[in-house]
Amino acid sequence: MSQQSDYRYSLKVNGATEFDVVSFVLKEGLSQLFRLELELASFDSSPSFSEILDNRATLTFWQGIEPVRYVNGVVTQLVQGESGFSRTRYNMVIEPDLVRASYQSDNKIFQQQDSEKILRQLLSKNHINQVEFHLSDSYWQREYCVQYRETDLAFIERLAAEEGTYYYFSHTEDGHTLHFSNHSALAPEKGTLLYNPTPAGERPEAALWHWAYQAKLGTNRQTLRDYTFTHPTYSQEHRHALQQTSVLGESAVNIYEKYDYPGRYKRDAQGEPFSRYRLEYERREAEVALATGDDLRLIPGYR
């Protein structure tokens, strides 16, 4: 049986210097660009920065002789540090292809297109072609949608969030795929995690060993309102309220409402889900489970 001490890591940078991994920190989450910060060492004291920056790199997690996880992205930063007798220290940052969308901005109008088509155009513009959509229902066609003085990434995230859609990444040895989804039931499964609250000595299996549950008050009703010249007397108001929670015991007696105008919709069929998505966003931290462990299957976007 594999032991925790069997874990090791290796880094491959396409067509560049060989690096040994000294340490790393990986930060990732739903609808966030992952950021892999590495401290490295190499026998090469004069690497070509142009061959490394904006090129693909892969960190491989090994358990024994088996690769169990990959983190693939583009090198967005490289720092050369001090040299010793035989090796030179480096610091490197690896991020997803989607980070390139944060380096460009535009003003653009999209007409008679749904959000998936708009998103695909923006991603293609930024040379992001490994994209998959996992949707429980199709997007409504937008009569008029504007990207105004914002980066491509900010527009992508705003448009996706407005549709109740989050994004995450999957990785292989040679690349990574950007996934968009609007329902957690569509998330791929990673199986059951082991919980061991009393670990001692060498742990024979990956597990969670700390667990906490957090709940707090927050907005429990969202109201949106808009206007359309085709029906000016109609209020176009849509409200979505939380019925109850198992922990907080919130009810209609304790109303914490957020109101917004314009709601950025012109039809009832759009207003109802928009208000629901907005409330889900407001309550994203109302009930949270916190865990610590060493199971490499803990990856954002999976269940």
Automatic annotation (TrEMBL):
Coiled coil: none
Superkingdom of origin organism: Bacteria
InterPro entries: T6SS_RhsGE_Vgr_subset, T6SS_Vgr_RhsGE
Record's protein name: Rhs element Vgr protein
Lineage: Bacteria, Pseudomonadati, Pseudomonadota, Gammaproteobacteria, Pasteurellales
